[in-house]
Structures are given as structure tokens and as C-alpha cells.
Amino acid sequence: MTYDPARSSGYPDPPQRVGFFTDTSICIGCKACEVACKEWNGLPADGPLPEDASVLELTGMSYDNTGALGASTWRHVAFVEKQNDAGGLNWLMASDVCKHCTHAACLDVCPTGALFRTEFSSVVVQQDVCNGCAYCVSACPYGVIDRREGDGRAWKCTLCYDRLRGGLEPACAKACPTDSIQFGPLDELRERADQRLARLHSDGVTEARLYGEDPADGVGGAGAFFLLLDEPETYGLPPDPVATTRDLPAMWRWAAGAALGLAGGVAVAFLGARGRGR
Amino acid sequence: MNAPEQVDPVQFTDYYGRPVLKVTRWKSPHMPGYLFLGGLSGAASTMAAAAEATGRPRLARQGRLTAAVAAVGGAGLLVAELGRPERFLNMLRVFKPSSPMSVGSWILAAHGGVTTAAAASTVTGVAPRAGRAAVAVSAVTGPLVATYTGVLLADTAVPAWHAAHRHLPPLFAGSALAAAGGAAMVMVPVAAAGPARRAALLGALAELAVTASLERGQGFGEEPRLVSEPYRIGRAGTLLRAARLLAVAGAAGTALAAGRHRAAAVAAGAALLAGSACTRFGVYHAGVLAGRDPKYTVVPQRARPRVQESRPG
Lengths: 278, 313
Description:
The complex is a heterodimer. Chain A is α+β, with helices and mostly antiparallel strands. Chain A has 8 helices and 10 strands.
């Protein structure tokens, strides 16, 4: 049996794990996902400049004036213009989203318990608990979650937790006109992705590859995975993301050693010349 | 063309030069200031306990006061760092072993409590026995407060911090000891400060040794020269060079002159305090740079065997 995050988080009888399969080979770059997400979740506007999110201006990054995922942008369509060997241009589009990792570093490091695992195995922030410590921001290996300026709390995609509870699919998948964003049980999505990949390969699209579908990867497999037509880093994605929190026991061992060293150093300094220099 | 501390340019396709990670939202001077004050407080409380156990009242009193002031100041910086400071007590809503910040909050709460109690007892003369008990407890919480912050930074996706998970705890321990020894040299007369000088010297030597290893990226995994580059260039490089100069000067002054002249002791102690602060700000800024430039994330990950094998022909 595959590892079930919801079950190991204490849900005795969780529903099937659900997620996204984003097939970028049929994305047309319409940004309906971005708009539907903003509308449904009531997200404020934000500009593409990380140093000042209130500035709205053209980025010069092809048709991408969104820039990146962030506290108020939970779907982001990337536009890649890349010279190909034939002298032409490959125009690639891809809608990025929170990966809802099987082993989620943001969830591991959250000190307040604001981030939690839902019964659908997605990862969600409880906004009434988050105190804006921003640890999750530095822990995410994909640079997804962020602290919203002026609000002070961390925000990210909820996989439309409210819609899932009501039996609806997430707003972005609902709005996607080409079914580039597919929502469903993760097992089914993986099968569908394998078939799609085989089809593309047999059609000669050898550069097609899946990203985030492997349960053996550094985050235990993503709940939102992708079919890409180039290297992940071309789309701004890390090639081998790892939930670094898996090394925590080793880190504590080094800290324990250092703490003992500190205590030992003080003992040496004070016992070295007992009774002198009162 | 490149300075020797820089790695030659590396080839990969990025997304318009955008960061892959989010640059840390932890602010300066809050976070590095807390790293410094927490370390100072932790080592000072440990020294206060040792001074008390070996019958050195002047060092004990100075250690108690320094530990409490630094703990309260550091905690204040942490609260100011939050996006919602009024919710700081949510840190103690749960105890979560998977979160170094949760573990650290509980350690800091205990440490802040016992060091403040110990200092209050010293200042007011009330409940001296409880004060001594509090100091004894702070000999346990102190080393933890001074070193858990290494785990706090290392348990992130920031390449320069995570790859340094073996370096940061001992670096912070050494830096804390140098700072607390330096503070005692500044505040306690020469004749009474002998153990503080030895502690400061030990701390400064440890700080220098670990920093040298850190800057070379020893034990960093894939692409160690590149992943450790943020410690050698830019603002972090400048700060860590300053930290080294200050530590060397402070250690030399401590070894050669601080045992004879009060002025030399004050100068050497101040140099060690400043060096410790530079170390913390340097480590912080290395993490900022490592998050901002996608090459520090992408290139080491591409070098891993599982990525090499899985690349389509």
C-alpha cells in the first residue's frame, strides 16, 4: 500500500487522496486558472515585483506579468520563450501551483500548528492561528508559500479546501478550458499521466517528462504534479526538491554535541584555575 | 576575471533569473540580532552557573545580569519579527518536535524565565536560594539556547544554511562563548575575570576554526564550492572577514594583554562581542543571497545522481 499522508496524520478513514495533474503540453496560457483562483479565494491584487508587491507593471517576461507564486497568487502561469535547434522559438506555458507534498517541509516546521494536513492529504494554513513567523517560507523547497505584506500571515493554495468539503473541484481546474489542469484521485491522475506521457513519446515528443509524480523523490511525491516539455529549472522549478526537514535528527545531534561542547568549554575555563581571581 | 572566492559561471536555463526559492522573510537586524543575543545569553548563563559553583561572585553577578538582559532583548526581537506580533503566544500553543522553532520557543521561554528570575534575585537580594536554583537550571537551558539556532537555520531549503547543518551549531556555540567571555572582560575587573578570558579564547578559536571550514564548504555535499560561495562574497563575505579580523584581534588581546590592563581587556572584549555579531549577520546574509540566486538551488540539485540518471536523452 502506498503511504497515505492523511491516514498517518491521524484520520482513521480518510477519503481518497486527491490532487492536480497539470499537463503543460496542452496549456494555452489563458490564465483562467489564475483569475478563477483569485475570484474564488478572494485574493488581493499583487504585482510582479518581490520588493514591492503593490507595483503593477510589465515584467518583460513574455506574457507573464504575474511573476511567481506568492501569498496572493496561488496559480501562476509561466511563459517560456526558448530558442530551439531549428532556429525557431519554443513557446512553453505552464500553470504552477502548491505541490501539496507527501512530506511537506512547511508543515513540519510550522511552530504554531497553523499549517495542517487535511483529510484529502492537502496542506492548508489556518489563518486564525498563523502568527507570521515565516519559517514555512524558508522551508518550502519550491518557493511557494509566502507571508503577505500588510497582513503578516502566511498564505498559499488550499486545494480549494472549502470546495472539496462541498464536493466541488478546485476553482482553477473547473475554469481550465483545455483540461491542462486535471483534478482527481491521485492514483487515477498518475495512471492518466503515464498514458499521456507514453502517447507523447510515441508521437516523437521525446522532451516530455513527468515532474513530481515519483513517490521516491525528495518530498515523497507531490500531490500536484506536472507534465513538462523542458527541464524543470526552465520553468523556475527546482530539479530535485527535498524536504530538508528529513535531516532533522542529524541536525539535532550536531546541536547536542555543540551544546555539550559549550558547557565543556565553560567548565574547562572555570576549573582550569580553581580558586584564583575572586 | 572572477575573484578567487567566486566560482566560475555555471550554465543552466533559469526562469528570467527569478529565484526558485522565496528569499527569507526573516528581517535584519531582527533575526541575526536575535542569533547574537540568544547566544550571548546562553553562554553568559552557563558561565554564571560555573562562576557560582566555583565561588566567583563578581563573574556570577555579571553573568546573571548579562544573560537576563540579552534573553529579554532577543525575545523582543523575535516578537517584533513576527508578521502578527500580538499572536506571539501561539508559539506555545503546541509542542512540536518536528519544528525547531517550536522546540526553540519552549527552550527560550524556560531560559528567559530562569535567567530573569536569577537576575531579579541578584538585583533585589530577594530569594537568594531560588536565584541559585534558577542559575543552575540556566546552565542547562543556556547551551541549548546558544546552539538550537543553528538547527533553526539549517532546517530550511536555503542551500547555504542547510548544507551547513554540521557547521552552524558549533559555530554558534563558539561565537556565543566568545561573546559572553568578551562581555565579562568588559564588565568585570581584570583580577576577577581570568576564567572569562579563557572562555573567550576558547570560543574565539572555535569560531575561527568553524568559519574557515564553513567558507570552504567542507562536508557540504554536491557542488560545495558553489553552495558555500554566499559565505565568501557580497555582504556576507565582508561581514565574515570582519568577524575574523575582530576575533583574531580580540583573541590576541585576550591572550597577551587583557590579564594586565583593564583598558586592553575592555578593548579585547568589545572586539570579541563585535566579531560574534558580525558572524551572525554574515551567516544571515549568506542565506539571503543563497535564496535570491537560482543557481545555488538548481546547480547542486542537477548534480545529484538521481537527476543525472533521469534526464531524457
